[in-house]
Amino acid sequence: MPQSRAAFCIYINTFFQGPVPVERNEQEKPVVYATREAAEREIAEYCIQRLQQYLAGERDFDDAITVEEYVVPVTAFSDGSISDEGGNVFPNENW
Fold first, then answer.
1. Rounded to a whole number, what is the largest CA-CA distance in the chain?
2. What is the DSSP pairing of strand 70-77 with strand 4-14?
3. Which of 9, 66, 72, 84 could tie 21 with a disulfide, CB 3.0–4.6 Å?
């Protein structure tokens, strides 16, 4: 059985799959963060980038200020998979 540790992922709600991790690494596994703050900072940096795109005329205002990403505590396993409090496991067959 793989070793596990507490971690955090950035999720987004999708219409068909429900809540899913939004970032994947080179092996198509979910990107995990050691702390909630590290994951929140990643979302903040992405928000800053979208606002800069708005100021440059490259993105609509509503799109730039809408934040759909959120942080979820997960259990990260040594094989690169994760599970969340909702019982979801990623990657899975539908990944």
1. 51
2. antiparallel
3. 9
| 3-state secondary structure (DSSP) of residue 74 | strand
Distance CA 3, CA 45 (A): 31
Helix (H, G, I), strand (E, B) or coil at 55: helix
The structural domains of the chain, with segments of one domain joined by +, span: 4-90
**Predicted TM-score of the model (pTM):** 0.89
Measured in whole angstroms, the distance separating CA 57 from the mean position of its chain's CA atoms is 26
Yes or no: say if 14 and 20 are a contact pair by the CB < 8 Å rule.
yes
